[in-house]
């Protein structure tokens, strides 16, 4: 039994003091604790610039910015802070990594580039690789699913031949299934491939530990990877923040794909001398206030009882999973846990999400940016409830009660009309 009380935690989140809507879209975005809001505001109220100027305010801002990098490194137990690149989210991180890895190989004279990814991936970990496959010599293999997770046998088969890159999600944003990263890393290594993990859905629920020599934090999970990406807004941080971690020796070989201010030591007509990583990957003025808020969210999580958060999220998720499984007409497409994807017979998912909205609940509906997985599962769209540490039993029971109501109702005309207007933007 845990003494964890989500109502006490909620006091740290202004959302719950000002809004009544039940927030169950944490897989898309989380609410922010006051500490994060304060950090962003403080930074905006003392605007400065980093890595660029000599005045004291800029010196201080640079120190604080690099300290933020150290906190993010600690958050995932990365061996060095200089292996962490700030991005605008998981999407930005994967696009940077994909282009950069491909270009580096090409410059090193590599012939061909073989990528293995899966049908489960979010578009952010699918399209960048798919786009690369348009380049000459690039081959992409998309492995299938085994129920709600990755087909590990198919992965092993695909990796029985040499490969350059394996790109997989650590936790699915559709099914909530976790990858066995240790097994994936073993297979990738045997094939000579780099293993990249999309950890966007992982960081909220588990403390990621990349370094085997570090003691595993409470509620943590050892993760094997050569590179990994995640988003700040999915872990109580500001919107449009994220990080790309790349193993040191691999990072040294990567070439930048964005060029501009403060990423070169010197440049003239004939030569460009790049800054060392990670700065060579952060051209232009960074979004300092948001990045500091991102680091504050990481610090806040590092100081939180994450094992209790995890037990609470898992317990509530399983309870909700059981309740929905018992609801006639509900079909579930997720493993028991804090992310529940489902349909309700007789309801279009968008209509159902609008119905739930009128009942005061915020849930995502649509293809969840994972259209290939939807096709593979044989569903056009899903409704998704995703939980966080501040989610309460009452939130979950309100969803169950609303779905019981929905089951008894027929989608009304007003609802359908609103759906017709909104559906184009609800992917
Ligand atoms: N990968 C996964 C598994 C996700 O769930 C998401 C966000 N829904 C992303 C990537 C993209 O993250 P972002 O929009 O923060 O860049």
Name its key features.
alpha/beta; binds 4'-deoxy-4'-aminopyridoxal-5'-phosphate; Aspartate Aminotransferase, domain 2; single chain; seven-stranded mixed sheet; Aspartate Aminotransferase, domain 1; four-stranded antiparallel sheet
What's the short version?
This protein is of the alpha/beta class.
Helix/strand layout:
Layout lengths: L5 H5 L3 H5 L3 E2 L10 H12 L10 H20 L8 E4 L2 H18 L5 E6 L8 H6 L5 E6 L1 E2 L2 E2 L1 H7 L6 E5 L11 H10 L3 E5 L8 E3 L10 E3 L4 E5 L10 E5 L1 H6 L10 E4 L4 E3 L13 H15 L3 H20 L4 E3 L6 E6 L4 H10 L2 E2 L1 E3 L4 H7 L4 E5 L6 H16 L4 H10 L5
Parallel strand pairs: 1-17, 3-4, 3-7, 7-8, 8-11, 9-10
Antiparallel strand pairs: 2-12, 5-6, 11-12, 13-14, 15-16, 16-19, 18-19
Helix pairs in contact: 3-10, 4-10, 11-14, 12-15
The structure holds 4'-deoxy-4'-aminopyridoxal-5'-phosphate.
4'-deoxy-4'-aminopyridoxal-5'-phosphate binds next to α5.
Q: Could you explain the architecture of this structure?
A:
By secondary structure, the chain is α/β, with parallel strands linked by helices. Helices cover 39% and strands 17% of the residues. The chain contains 15 helices and 19 strands. The strands form six sheets. The protein has a seven-stranded mixed beta sheet with strand order 2-12-11-8-7-3-4, with helices on both faces. Strands 15-16-19-18 form a four-stranded antiparallel beta sheet, with helices on one face. It has a two-stranded parallel sheet with strand order 1-17. Helix 11 (306-325) packs parallel to helix 14. The relative contact order is 0.15. 4'-deoxy-4'-aminopyridoxal-5'-phosphate is lined by residues 27-28, 89-91, 122, 124-125, 169, 173, 198, 200-201, 231, 242, 369.
């Amino acid at each position: 039994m845990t003494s964890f009380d989500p109502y006490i935690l909620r006091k740290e989140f202004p959302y719950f003091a000002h809004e009544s809507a039940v927030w169950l879209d944490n897989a898309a975005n989380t609410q922010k604790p006051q500490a994060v809001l304060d950090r962003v505001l403080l930074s905006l109220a003392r605007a400065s610039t980093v890595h660029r100027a000599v005045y004291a305010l800029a010196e201080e801002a640079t120190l604080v910015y690099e300290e933020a990098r150290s906190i993010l490194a600690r958050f995932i137990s990365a061996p060095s802070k200089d292996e962490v690149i700030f991005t605008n989210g998981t999407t930005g991180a994967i696009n940077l990594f994909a282009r950069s890895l491909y270009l580096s190989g090409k410059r090193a004279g590599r012939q061909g580039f073989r990528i293995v990814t899966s049908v489960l991936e979010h578009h952010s970990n699918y399209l960048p690789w798919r786009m690369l496959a348009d380049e000459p010599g690039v081959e992409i293999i998309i492995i299938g699913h085994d129920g709600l997770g990755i087909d590990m046998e198919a992965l092993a088969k695909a990796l029985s031949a040499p490969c350059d890159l394996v790109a997989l999600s650590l936790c699915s944003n559709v099914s909530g299934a976790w990858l066995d990263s240790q097994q994936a890393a073993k297979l990738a290594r045997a094939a000579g491939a780099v293993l990249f993990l999309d950890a966007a859905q992982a960081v909220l629920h588990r403390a990621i530990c990349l370094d085997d020599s570090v003691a595993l934090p409470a509620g943590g999970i050892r993760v094997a990877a050569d590179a990994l990406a995640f988003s700040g807004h999915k872990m109580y941080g500001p919107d449009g923040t994220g990080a790309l971690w790349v193993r040191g020796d691999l990072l040294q070989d990567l070439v930048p794909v964005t060029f501009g201010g403060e990423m070169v030591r010197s440049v003239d007509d004939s030569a460009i001398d790049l800054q060392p990583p990670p700065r060579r990957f952060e051209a232009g003025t960074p979004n300092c206030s948001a990045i500091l808020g991102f680091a504050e969210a990481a610090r806040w999580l590092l100081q939180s009882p994450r094992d209790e958060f995890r037990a609470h999220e898992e317990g509530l998720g399983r309870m909700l999973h059981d309740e929905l499984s018992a609801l006639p007409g509900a079909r579930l497409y997720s493993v028991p846990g804090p992310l529940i994807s489902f349909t309700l017979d007789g309801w279009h998912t968008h209509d159902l999400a609008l119905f739930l909205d009128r009942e005061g609940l915020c849930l995502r509906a649509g293809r969840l940016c994972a259209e290939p997985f939807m096709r593979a599962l044989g569903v056009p769209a899903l409704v998704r409830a995703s939980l966080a540490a501040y989610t309460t039993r009452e939130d979950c029971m309100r969803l169950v009660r609303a779905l019981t109501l929905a089951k008894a109702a027929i989608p009304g005309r007003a609802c359908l009309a609103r759906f017709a207007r909104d559906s184009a933007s609800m992917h």
